[in-house]
Amino acid sequence: MNAAPLLRVEGLRKHFPFTKGILFAKTLGQIKAVDDVSFEIRAGETLGLVGESGCGKTTTSRMILNLEEPTEGRILLDGEPIHGLQGEALRAYRARVQAVFQDPWSSLNPRMKVGRTIAESLIVNASRNRRRGDRARIDERVRELLLQVGLRPEQAQQYPHEFSGGQRQRVALAAALASRPKLIVLDEPVSALDVSIRAQMMNLLKDIQAQDDVAYLLVAHDLATVRHMADHTVVMYLGKIVEKAPTASLFEDVRHPYTKALFSAVLVAWPGQAAEEIELKGEVPSPLDPPSGCRFHTRCPHVMPRCSQQEPALREVSPGHFVACYMFE
Amino acid sequence: MTVETVLEVRDLHTHFFLRRGVVKAVDGVSFSLRRGEVLGLVGESGCGKSLTALSLMRLLPKGGARTIKGEVRLGGENILECTPAEMREIRGRRISMVLQDPQTSLNPVFTVGDQLREAIQRRKRAPRAAVMEEAVAALRRVEIAAPEQRIGQYPHQMSGGMKQRVVGAIAISGEPGVLIADEPTTALDVTIQLQYLKLLKRLQAETGMAILFITHDFGVVGRMCDRVAVMYAGRIVECGPVRQIFEAPQHPYTRALIASVPKMTGPVGRLATIEGQPPSLMDLPAGCRFASRCALVEQRCLDVYPGTVRVGEEHTADCWKAASS
Fold it and tell me: Each residue of B123-141: pLDDT tens digit?
């Protein structure tokens, strides 16, 4: 347990300026998309990042992918800060941290055979050791990758449109695996897939993790998916972490009122099984003008006077289980 | 059971006639819907559930789709025989529909008030002030806060959940007896989804309308529906009360589908999967359509399509191996 984490996120903030006008733009305010977020991912583990739209989970994952610069805070991979990397070092980082997105079309070129797409990922990420005569080695690796994701090697010669949705997602995964990454950001990897295909994809992801010891950052809104995939789970609301815990302990003992509401809203698949139903009133407030104090206090069924005055800090309520709520102080 | 049947669909066939061949997207669908009940129509993409809904509305997509056979009885009248003019009278007043993406149902350049007014004025002539009042009342009914202000807003000024409420308000403004909801909450966040589902339930209790709820999410089925029909490759393969379908599914496809859903409780292990692909709708097998993926397959499954077997009270399955009762 004491092994150094693969990825460490420390006090991460991302504020987007909100402007008016085009030429003489005026900054009207800052959208605090991500506000003081910290967590760790260990090698070969899965961290689930859960929350509703606008909670900052995608912005967080984009910063980890080094596609956005954080406003504050830092991200360390194997102890090395990742922002400010350039040239070869940045390329090496991209080889070690890959991504699979919800819509596989967005990562595949419709006019390129999928074998070529996967090979390209290999070539780009291994440009330093490109030599003549590598052709056969690349073909061999593409073959291997296709087999690993449960496709047939001869399917390398097909175009993306010839595949079903689930198969396209497998191709996207093969391309992500090409550079033997240490971490893959999975942004809603199964939510566009049909139920039966979803289960296949989840099993495949787990198998690959077991084989390659790759870590996943799983960004998802479906709690049941996270429960089956993640070792640790982080719940976000309006740019803040409201609860984080080992997945098993979180699902056994939900603490934060928002997480509770989220759990109760996840429709229990068995009729009559929903024990406690918490229907939250209203909608998520605008991140442009977040509520003072605890950001959830406007919708919280247990709101107390101090909730609107001061922000509760994350506190450890049981080993590894952190909650940001005054009810637990 | 003397509850009035408001919608009866019998042997509905809607096919796409393409140059390459005939796609039998809806191929013999039968079900009935009673006053005040929610019937779930569940299945994976391409099983024909949305096309079934569009066939009931007589709003088939352009490009070769035609309903070639069957009956859709709405209060005793077969609406497949109605003229387009008669259909326009029926839509909105007797049968209405809510789609997945509210953005596609609302016109971005008109205020929601204009769009509600249009729906109200199509039904009756009334002074402007009275129509306005009715539009505000319609928004209040779908629990939109401050409807007097919201009515002057454009769709882009509203959140997804609120837009879906506006679409709902328009759909039920004509007090239809049947509402078809095609994945109305799929695009919404989970807490907003719960709000919307509860709203639908409350509206249904008030009006007694029957809802055909199309979804692929068993969680939604468990919370919303009284009965559920499972569709596979253009046909309903199992239909019954929600509890029975969840606890004792009789069709192997239903069983496999339920097993593959990740659960919120119980052991975390490998998920069950369904191997293979559904058959091509252009080239359907003679026998059971699930046979090529079924673990219990035998020769007769490949040769002859099983009839609909009664397996319990109001519970039917299209399977040779289902125990009839």
Answer: 888 898 999 999 999 999 9
Tell me the domain boundaries of chain A.
7-328
Structural contact between residues B296 and B277, judged by C-beta atoms closer than 8 angstroms: no
Q: pLDDT tens digits for A118-169?
A: 998 887 766 555 555 578 888 899 999 999 999 999 999 999 999 888 899 9
Tokens of B211: 């809802």
- Of B44, B197, B220, nearest to A196 by CB-CB distance is B44
Say if the Cβ atoms of A269 and B263 lie within 8 Å.
yes
State the best of B44, B183, B186, B191 to mutate against chain A, taking most chain A CBs within 10 Å: B191
Instruction: Supply the pTM of this predicted model.
Output: 0.88
Both ends of chain A: CA-CA distance in Å?
27
Residue the block writes with tokens 């673990």: B295
Contacts of A301 in chain B (CB under 8 A): none
* CA dist., res. A6 & res. A77, Å (int): 6
Q: Tokens 């087999």: give the residue.
A: A147
Of B162, B198, B271, the CB nearest to A228: B271
| Chain B CA closest to residue A53 | B189
- Between CA A232 and CA A243 the distance in angstroms is 11
How far is residue B95's CA from residue B74's CA, in Å, rounded to a whole number? Answer: 8
> Using CB atoms and an 8 Å cut-off, which of residues 182-211 of chain A contact chain B?
194-200, 202-203, 206
Is the domain spanning A7-328 CATH 2.60.120.290? The answer is: no
Q: CA-CA distance, B313 to B151, in Å (whole number)?
A: 47
The complex's ipTM works out to 0.83
Chain A contact for B44, CB < 8 A?
Answer: yes
Using the Cβ of A271 and the Cβ atoms of chain B, whether some distance falls under 8 Å is answered with yes
